[in-house]
Amino acid sequence: MPAARTLQRRPGTPRPPAAPPAPAAKVPSRPTTHLRDAGLLAAAGVAGFGAAPLVGYPGLEVPSLLLGLGGGAALAVTGQRTKLRRELEDKVLEALAPLLGVRHLDRRIVKMTKWTNRWPGLPAKVRIHYAPGAPDSDPMWKSEILAVLDSRMLARYEVARHEPRRCTLWLTLVTKEQTEGKEPPYSQVRAERAITELIGPTAKVTDVELDGEELCSLTVTHQAGAKLAASGYRNRIERVISTMMPGRWRAVWDLEGDEVRFEVRPTLPSSVWLPPRAPEDTEDLLRNYRQVKIPCAIDEDGREILWYPARVPQAMLTGGTGTGKTSTAHVLLGQFTQYGWPAWVLDAKRVEFLDFRTWPNVQIVAGSIPQQVALIRRVWELMEYRYQLIEEGKATVNDFEPLVVFLDEFAEFRSNLFEWYAQIKVKGDPTKPPTLAEVASLARKARTARIHLVLSTQRPDAEFLGGEMRDNFGFRISMGRLSPQGAMMMWENPAVGVSLPRARTGRATATHEDGKPVEVQCYRFPDINADEDSEERQLLESIRPAEARWPRLVIVPPEAQVDLDGGEPTPPTFRDYARAVWDLAENRPDLDPLSGAAGEDAVDGRELSSTMASLGISTSDHPGPCSRPHLRLVDALEQDAAETEQGGGLTWDLDEYVGYAPPVSCAARDLVVGDLIQIEDGAGEWVVVDEPPEEDLAAPGMIAVSWRGDGDESGSISLPDDNYIEVRRPEEDA
Ligand SMILES: Nc1ncnc2c1ncn2[C@@H]1O[C@H](COP(=O)(O)OP(=O)(O)OP(=O)(O)O)[C@@H](O)[C@H]1O
C-alpha cells in the first residue's frame, strides 16, 4: 500500500506554537439572545476578545473570552483592540443606562479614555453624561455607578469630579500604587470567582504563583471538607477550573489539611530518548523474572510508565502512521533483550524490524507470511507443551524461561494472511486460517507459559480486538490522537486520548501503575542506522545487549512433494508451512539472509534501488543487460487500484484534518471532547476541545470551552451560551 496518499500533516513537523495569536471566533448568534444577559455578559468584556452581535442592539456586541497558553508559553491575544474597547464602552453604557436616566443609548454618554496598555486595557478615565432627571443627589447613586464600573471592568474606580450643572461625572481608575497592591491578572480574578462559586464562601486564596502576568497556581484553604469528601465533586471542580482557565489545569487535594492547590499541568517534552541503563541481575532469567520492568514513557510529572510483564503479561500498542509506534516497539524490544530474554518478531510490514535481525537475543524476525504462520504455530506449540509439562507434573511455571513475541502491525498481518490463505487452502482445510485462533489462544493462556505478547496495530479494530481479546492485553499504549471509537476500544471512554496534540510524535496514552490511562511521552529509540560518529549511535551502542545468549534461527521453507508417478509436484499446504522445520541460522547459511551465502551481502543497495534499475534500464556506469526486477508490491497496488475503482479502498484526501467530518453548526454547550473548533473564525486552523464545556462561573451566560492545538498549545474560550459555532466532528469510522 503506498504511503502518504493523504495530505495529512505529519506529526514531527509542528506548527509554529500558538502563532499567530488569534482573536476568538466570530460566532453567529441565534436570534434569541436576551438583553437581560447583556449586562452580565459585559462583565466578561474586560478580557473580551471577539464578539457576537446582540439582537436589538446592532452596534453592541457580546464579547467572547479567549485565554491561552502555547505549549506552556503564553498565547498572547491580538485583534482589533479599538473595536473591543468600543464594545466595552457599549456594555458599560447598557449597564449604567438605568442609573443615568437616559432613554436612548448613545455612545456619547459614556466615554472611556487614557487606556492602559494591557489587553484590551483599562480606561484610566471615564466620563459619564447623565440625564437631568437622574437621581444624582441620592447618596447611593455614585456608589451604584462605581459598583457597575467595578463589576464590569473588574477594576476599582473612584469619582474624580462631579459637575451637576453639566450633568457630568468623571471617574478615574484606582491605580496599583493607590491600592498598594498589584492588580491581579484577569485569569486570577476568574479563577477566584469560580473557586468561591464551587467551594463556597469559606474558600480563601492563600497563595498565588505568577510567571509574569501568567497565573501558574493558586492555593486555597476552605472549611468545606464534607462537601469535598466526594471524589465526584472534586473531579468536577478540577474540570471546571481546567476548562475555564487558559492552559491545562489540575487540582492537588489535601483533604486532611482542608487545602487544595490548583496548578497548570506541566508540559510534556516533545522528545525523550530512552535512557541508557543496563538492568541488573540478568544472569538467571528465572531469578529476576518477577522484577523485570520495562520503562516505556514518562508522564507529565516525569514519572516513568513501567510495564511489569510478570504482573500484566500482554501488551498492546496502537497508533497510526508516524505516531512513533515503531520507535516505541523498538524501546520495548531493546529492553527485553537487555534483560537477556529471547525475542521472536513477526514483522508484518517486513521492514520495521529488519535491522534487528542482528540485534543480540532477537532470534528471528519473520517477514513473510509463511514464516509468520510458522512463527505463531511454534509459539502456540511451545505454550501447549509447557501446559502439558505442568499437567504431567514434570515442570512448574517457575521453571519456564520467558519468551517475548512481537506481533507487529497485526491488522496488516491479518489481512495478508487471509489473502494468502485463500490461495493456499486445500480441500479439508478450515475456512479461516487456524493461525488466528492460535493468536487468540495465546492471548488467553500464554501468561502461564511465561510467553509474553506485544501486539501492535494501527487501529484497535473491533473485528479482531473486541471484548475478551482486548481485555487480555492489560498493558496498553495508544500512540497519538484517538477517534472517539478508538478511545472506546482502547480505554472504554470516548474522551480519553482524543485531544492529544497531533504534531507531537511519541505522545501517547498509556496504562499507569494504578491501571488508569494517562497522557505520556514515549521514549524514543535511537535510529538503528545512525551515523557511526553520532551521539545517537553512542546511545544505541549503550542500549545494545552486551551478550547474545540466544542463537539466531531460520525457518526452513517446506518443499513441494514430488509425485512418484511423474505428475506435477504437490505444492506445500498450510499445514506444511505452519509446521515448517526450524534450525540454527549457523547450520543453514543458505537460508540465512545475513550469512552472505544467501546472496544479499553481494549487492550494491544504491544501484539496486535506483530508478533506472527498477525500470530495467542499464546505465553507462553499469553497462550490460539489466532485467526489470520483480516487484512484490505490484500485486498489492493493482488490487488497491481495483478497489478504488469499485468505490472502496483508498481515497485521495486533500483535507489535512483527515478523519473529521465537514463543519456543521453546534451550540457551544453541546460541544464534546474531541470536536474541532476554530479559535479564529475562518482561519482554517482547528483546535480540539479537550474538556466538556462548562458554564463560565466568572461570566454568567457564557460557556467556557477548553481547547488544545496540534502543537500542544492550549487555552480557553468563553462563548455566549446560546450561540452557535462551527464544529468538525470525528467521523464514525475514523
Ligand atoms: N518518542 C518519540 N519522540 C519523538 N520523535 C519520535 C518518537 N518516536 C519516533 N519519533 C520520530 O518520528 C518518526 C516516525 O516514527 P516511527 O517510525 O516510530 O512512527 P510509526 O508510527 O511507526 O510510523 P510508521 O507506521 O509510518 O512507521 C521517526 O522518524 C522518529 O524520528
Automatic annotation (TrEMBL):
<dbReference type="GO" id="GO:0005524">
    <property type="term" value="F:ATP binding"/>
</dbReference>
<keyword id="KW-1133">Transmembrane helix</keyword>
<keyword id="KW-0472">Membrane</keyword>
<dbReference type="GO" id="GO:0003677">
    <property type="term" value="F:DNA binding"/>
</dbReference>
<feature type="region of interest" description="Disordered">
    <location>
        <begin position="1"/>
        <end position="31"/>
    </location>
</feature>
<feature type="binding site">
    <location>
        <begin position="319"/>
        <end position="326"/>
    </location>
    <ligand>
        <name>ATP</name>
    </ligand>
</feature>
<protein>
    <submittedName>
        <fullName>Cell divisionFtsK/SpoIIIE</fullName>
    </submittedName>
</protein>
<keyword id="KW-0547">Nucleotide-binding</keyword>
<feature type="domain" description="FtsK">
    <location>
        <begin position="302"/>
        <end position="488"/>
    </location>
</feature>
<dbReference type="InterPro" id="IPR050206">
    <property type="entry name" value="FtsK/SpoIIIE/SftA"/>
</dbReference>
<keyword id="KW-0812">Transmembrane</keyword>
<keyword id="KW-0067">ATP-binding</keyword>
<feature type="compositionally biased region" description="Pro residues">
    <location>
        <begin position="13"/>
        <end position="23"/>
    </location>
</feature>
<dbReference type="InterPro" id="IPR027417">
    <property type="entry name" value="P-loop_NTPase"/>
</dbReference>
<dbReference type="GO" id="GO:0051301">
    <property type="term" value="P:cell division"/>
</dbReference>
<keyword id="KW-0131">Cell cycle</keyword>
<dbReference type="InterPro" id="IPR003593">
    <property type="entry name" value="AAA+_ATPase"/>
</dbReference>
<feature type="transmembrane region" description="Helical">
    <location>
        <begin position="38"/>
        <end position="56"/>
    </location>
</feature>
<keyword id="KW-0132">Cell division</keyword>
<dbReference type="InterPro" id="IPR002543">
    <property type="entry name" value="FtsK_dom"/>
</dbReference>
